[in-house]
Design brief:
The complex is a heterodimer of chains A (255) and B (80). Chain A is of the alpha/beta class and 255 residues long. Chain A folds into two domains: 175 residues, Rossmann fold (3-Layer(aba) Sandwich); 63 residues, no CATH class. Chain A has ten helices and eight strands. In chain A, the strands form two sheets. In chain A, strands 3-4-2-5-6-7 form a six-stranded mixed sheet, sandwiched between helices. In chain A, β3 and β4 form a beta hairpin. Chain A is globular. Chain B is α+β, with helices and mostly antiparallel strands. Chain B has one domain: SH3 type barrels (Roll). Chain B contains two helices and six strands. A six-stranded antiparallel sheet of chain B has the order 1-6-2-3-4-5. In chain B, a hairpin with a 2-residue loop joins β4 and β5. Chain B is globular and about 30 Å long. The relative contact order of chain B is 0.31. Classes of the chains: A alpha/beta (255), B alpha+beta (80). At the A-B interface, α3 of A face α1 of B. Bound molecules: guanosine-5'-triphosphate and magnesium ion. Magnesium ion binds next to α1 of chain A.
């Protein structure tokens, strides 16, 4: 991750509304973070599955308008349940300006699976390591600097219930949308045979995909025979596009 | 593929723990189990069985997860 000098604020930015997707595992405090940032009272509770569909709220910080979208908690983005589908479709296809991932400081290993999956989709990601008070109580020490370094994205430690770390989080979100932070996200590298297929499929897909869809990510989904991705690609740059052509292209690669 | 005499998660009694060796399913179901934290090498503790005997609650990477016995049967483990 590289910090660059402050970029000039464009005239339109003052009126632009920046959309932030709020994602994370179930029960990690996403709605608590949401309430802290927006001042709204989205229902929170100490059991998973509280947020069933997405909720939206707005806030204003350093002269910018933000819309925060609280997504249902999921362990993965493989669209195998409605919740996963809602979260995935929003992060992939609604084109938020950035995605804020909330995770639980007391079980990072579990939580980082989702973080890595999101980093395969987009590099516009900020990680909020929440429940830092719980981690401390349990005697865990979370190395935020090391996480920042290893993941290549900004990481902020918070205790959202008491509000600790939230103002710093707001500033980091702002630095991201202002273009002051360039991320270098950690990518999962698969075994060489799979990497060859991914690269081949991604290369063939690129002419058909809109610029904002990561072709490596699309290739991975197609390799898993998840063709639903193709149905979402409608405003494409290639007139000859059709899901049928894409499937044929992929089939060629898989031979 | 069935490996004779191998233990699956369903064979582990409540209160005991085991380590994941392999998952026997493929495709989306395998992916789902991996995403729940059932990756080879992970330790899983059997917390309790529902009164009907299915599902069973497991502690996996710090979170309580309920698995159907049909799924648990696909997860090969060792007790070391
Ligand atoms: N100690 C502590 N508790 C927290 C913190 N953040 C949230 N909580 C509590 O954790 C519980 C779950 O919080 P929610 O905000 O509902 O979690 P969520 O991620 O929105 O949950 P789902 O929508 O079900 O996925 C609530 O009881 C919160 O009060 C924190 O930083 N520290
Ligand atoms: Mg919630």
């Amino acid at each position: 991750m590289i910090k660059t000098a402050s970029l000039p604020v464009h005239g339109q930015e003052a009126t632009k509304n920046f959309v932030i997707a709020l994602a994370g595992n179930p029960n990690v405090g996403k709605s608590t973070v949401f309430n802290r940032l927006t001042g709204l009272k989205q229902h929170t509770g100490n059991w998973p599955g509280k947020t069933v569909t997405r909720a939206e709220g707005t806030f204003f910080h350093r002269n910018r308008h933000y819309t925060l979208v609280d997504l249902p908690g999921t362990y993965s983005l493989h669209a195998s349940s409605t919740d996963e589908q809602v979260a995935r479709d929003f992060i992939c296809f609604a084109r938020p300006d950035l995605t804020l991932v909330v995770c639980d400081a007391t079980c990072l290993e579990r939580n980082l699976n989702l973080v890595l999956q999101i980093l395969e989709i987009t590099d516009r990601v900020v990680l909020c390591v929440n429940l830092m008070d719980e981690a401390k109580r349990k005697g865990f020490r979370v190395d935020i600097d090391m996480l920042t370094h290893k993941l290549g994205i900004p990481v902020v430690g918070t205790a959202a219930r008491s509000g600790r770390g939230l103002s710093r989080l707001k500033n980091v979100l702002d630095d991201m949308v202002a273009g002051k932070i360039v991320t270098t996200p950690q990518q999962v590298v698969y075994d060489p045979e799979l990497e060859t297929s991914i690269n081949e499929i991604a290369k063939r897909l690129t002419p058909y995909l809109p610029d904002w869809i990561n072709s490596r990510w699309a290739a991975l989904r197609l390799l898993e025979r998840d063709y639903s991705v193709l149905d979402h690609i409608t405003d494409n740059k290639n007139k000859n596009y059709s899901p049928r052509i894409l499937k044929k292209e992929v089939a060629l690669c898989l031979q | 593929m069935v490996i004779p005499n191998s233990l699956s998660l369903i064979d582990i009694p409540v209160g005991d723990s085991a380590r994941v060796v392999n998952i026997l399913t493929i495709g989306a179901n395998r992916r789902r189990l991996l995403d729940l934290g059932l990756v080879p090498g992970s330790r899983v503790e059997v917390i309790r069985r529902s009164p009907a005997g299915n599902p069973t609650a497991y502690l996996i990477k710090g979170t309580l997860i309920a698995l159907r016995n049909e799924d648990a049967r696909q997860i090969l483990v060792d007790t070391n």
